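Lab notebook: predicted structure, single chain.

Context: the supervisor wants predicted structures on file for every construct in the current expression panel, including those that have not yet been purified. This is the next one on the list. No modifications to the sequence; it matches the entry in the shared construct table.
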Amino acid sequence: MITGSKHPTAPSVTEEFVSKTRRKREMQELQALGERLVTLNAEQLGTLDLPERLHDAIVEARRTTAFEARRRQMQYIGRLMREVDPAPIRERLAAFDGTSVADTALLHAAERWRERLIAEETAFEEFAAHYPRADLQRLRQLARNARKEKDAATPPRSYRELFRMVRDIVGKGPSLPSPD
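Prediction complete. Output recorded below exactly as produced.
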């Protein structure tokens, strides 16, 4: 009787099974990330902490114009991408695109404050408590003008200016909870 024999290619208990489809999707994502790196300018590429081989491969891909040679170079970049942690690269690319998590959170907080300042008169005191250096007189004026613009169905100039002002204050001010 044979006991305890395992198939040599079966994953052990400690390894996680990853399907071929999932591995292929991950490799395609890494290759797409590599293609995005090729589109960066030299200054942006220099700010990334990439291994020298990957950096050189990206520079070479920029110089390559023949279709098939470029395709092979992009596959090579995809293979090299498997050796690096893609998370910091993705974060840096998001920062280049202006869509980092912190930027998005700032925009959402500014949007919530703007809506509250327009809708509630008591929101100004709360805003001043969170951001003491805010120009409340200017904020009140912009909120009042934004309400008038909405009622008159005119272009939202003050509405946008209020957003910009709130975004700047929230971005520079203390990190206190935003209104919900």
